[in-house]
Amino acid sequence: MELTEEVKELLIKTAKELKGSACRLFMARTVRALGKGGQRRAEEELGWNRGRIRKGEHELKSGMVCVDAFNQRGRKRSEEHLPNLLKDITAIVDGQSQADPQFRSARLYTRLTAAEVRRQLITTYHYTDAELPTTATITTKLNEQGYTLKKVAKTQPQKNSRKPMPSSIT
């Protein structure tokens, strides 16, 4: 079967508009219509991925749709690996934290660094160095919980404004 430029353009555009299983089935049917060597021709002339075509052919043969579970992929959060991590971090940092002395924000200030929190998690709660996340991740977890890693500034007394003297009023 000969593919003209118009047919190629139509097939490419149709494949781009379809998503997921529908696209794979369309590709598999097109490759079957191309005959022997259809996968190679589709890859070279249409720019289609051969693995995707094979997945579509498998779906076509079996009649079952392969589910693309994109939400199941990727790296899991450290709380999923270590379910007690946030509770343990809070237990360590709560004793060392203070509220904003001027009550301008709801954030809690702590004198501990993320490296010190990590060190205390290892010594106090018996985590291993390999299973704990990095100090940057611990910093992120502390920020998410509302802690700020800096020293608490002492409150400065506000200056009393000078009262105007009767002689200075003009």
Low-confidence stretches: none
Radius of gyration: 32 Å
Share of β-strand residues: 5-15%
Task: Count structural domains.
Answer: 2
Question: Strands across the major sheet, in which order?
Answer: 1-2-3
Helix content: 40-55%
Number of strands: 3
Query: Main beta sheet, described?
Result: 3 strands, mixed
**Count of DSSP-assigned helices:** 8
Shape assignment: elongated
Beginning-to-end CA distance, first to last residue:
102 Å
Overall structural class, as computed from helix and strand content, comes to: mainly alpha
Give the SSE order as H and E letters.
Answer: HHHHHHEEHHE
Mean pLDDT: 85
Helix and strand arrangement:
Blueprint: H1 5-17, H2 20-34, H3 38-46, H4 50-62, H5 78-81, H6 85-94, E1 97-99, E2 108-110, H7 114-125, H8 135-144, E3 147-149
Parallel strand pairs: 2-3
Antiparallel strand pairs: 1-2
Helix pairs in contact: 1-2, 2-3, 2-4, 6-7, 7-8
In short:
With 170 residues, the chain is mainly α. It has helices at 5-17, 20-34, 38-46, 50-62, 78-81, 85-94, 114-125, 135-144; strands at 97-99, 108-110, 147-149.
